[in-house]
Design brief:
The chain is an alpha+beta fold and 312 residues long. 59% of the residues lie in helices and 14% in strands. It contains 13 helices and 7 strands. Helix 1 runs parallel beside helix 3 and helix 5 packs antiparallel against helix 6.
């Protein structure tokens, strides 16, 4: 009963309320079970997670390592539970700025999951994206890129499906690419995002190709990449006063959906300072594009339009 309360409170983000209950659960199980019993391990992991939520990193790390030691002694060192704990330890080491240990733990996570699933299994995607995100925040694009690319290669081979976690991660990666001239990687990101955001259309198109039928005649949506060059009219956004006063500049990427007549029917900024993003969305909605034709028929097109705010 207490354990169920801990899980519920943790899911609600009520870590302070969960803490005394999680401590009590571990006390009860320590008293009644062997130190390496799976239920003791679960109690250790839950208490560690609550402490991590409260930023009590030293206590969380101690509990995670005790749990990991128990798992390894019972032969589970190469299992998914071990991979999860190693990832949590990597996050703690990262927050403590111990980047060498962070790298070691992340590589351990990847090695375990590769052994469990295989090097091209879709189950590796989130691991690769998480590792890429950590490297991107610390080491920059060069070190992170290989993990994102590997994840995208897996996604391109897997059956198309909606995946909100991967979509968010890849949009963040796309924002990082905006300041580079890496057009090939950007094209791959656009392609994979299209696959994740429109799985039914992609599945239908792939089925038609596989059956060697005429493709595209009834396709409703295509991925257009960067659409700036196709604009008939591209009004520039106003530079918000608050951004000028705060000396804020930089690129904003806006994901848009253009209808069959070339009118923008949806605009959503995927990166950029909030006031710059709002101004960019307003400008993007007023843009007009050359209609996109597929097999001679106008279709909707999804893509990116970019704005660059430069202080003068």
């Amino acid at each position: 009963r207490l354990n169920a309360q801990v899980v519920k409170l943790y899911a609600e983000g009520k870590y302070a309320e969960a803490l005394p209950l999680a401590i009590r659960v571990l006390e009860i199980r320590d008293q009644g079970l062997e130190s390496e019993h799976p239920l003791v391990t679960v109690a250790l992991i839950n208490l560690a997670s609550v402490n991590a939520g409260l930023d009590k990193l030293d206590e969380a790390e101690k509990l995670y390592r005790r749990a990991l030691n128990a798992i390894e002694k019972t032969g589970g060192g190469e299992g998914e539970q071990s991979a999860n704990i190693n990832y949590q330890l990597a996050l703690i080491r990262y927050k403590k700025r111990d980047y060498k240990q962070t790298d070691s733990l992340l590589q351990r996570v990847l090695a375990i999951r590769e052994k469990l699933l295989g090097p091209e299994h879709p189950g590796l995607v989130h691991t690769l994206l998480n590792i890429g995100a950590l490297y991107l925040s610390r080491d920059g694009l060069d070190k992170a890129k290989s993990f994102y690319v590997r994840a995208m290669n897996i996604l391109q081979k897997a059956p198309p499906r909606t995946d909100a976690v991967s979509i968010k991660a890849l949009k963040n990666f796309l924002c990082a690419l905006a300041s580079t001239k890496d057009t090939e990687t950007s094209k791959q990101v656009f392609s994979v995002l299209h696959r994740l955001e429109n799985p039914e259309e992609v599945a239908d198109e792939e089925k038609r190709k596989k059956e060697q039928e005429e493709s595209g005649g009834d396709k409703q949506l295509v991925e257009g990449g960067v659409l700036n060059g196709r604009a008939i009219s591209k009004p520039q956004p106003s530079y918000p006063t608050e951004a000028i006063q705060a000396r804020i500049s930089g690129p904003v990427l806006v994901q848009i959906l253009v209808d069959e007549q070339g009118k923008v029917i949806k605009a959503e900024a995927i990166c950029g300072y909030p006031s710059l993003a709002r101004a960019s969305e307003d400008a993007a909605r007023r843009a007009r594009f050359t209609p996109t034709l597929l097999s001679g028929q106008p279709v909707k097109v999804s893509g990116i339009i970019t704005y660059n705010f430069i202080l003068r």
